[in-house]
Model the fold of this input.
Amino acid sequence: MDGYRRRVAASDDLLSRAFELALEARTAGDHPFGALLAVDGEIVAEARNLVSTSRDVTAHAETELVRLLERTDRRHLLGRGVVHASCEPCPMCVGALFWAGSRHVVFGLSSARLGEIATGPGEDDHGFSITAVEIAARATPYLLIDGPHREDDAAAVHEGFWH
Done:
């Protein structure tokens, strides 16, 4: 049981780091999202959202993680590790992670809860109604999407950002 507790604690620490990356993105003027890749509990790559500062709507934390791994010839590590994302990956990011070789993603904030936070009173919802879990369940080979975890912690960086 002790080994299991260490793994859970390590995963919790990794999610905390993803939340910190989201805060770093927000502080830099980008949307508050962060992601990292851990192999055997060790962080091998980190990325944050760069949509505003790069003027690239596809520069989500997860796609930036894939791009970083590709540029540094480490993309093969995706199949051996676990991606920890501050928020549930959008359909574009699920696709990028899948095609790059990821097979396990853990996330904090659900897209449904993000929608509640980001949608102001009287505003229409916008975005996708399909979840990352639903997309991944139709993938071959299988892609495990695990979350939400610690949603209140994950939501904190988004409070007051979207309005």
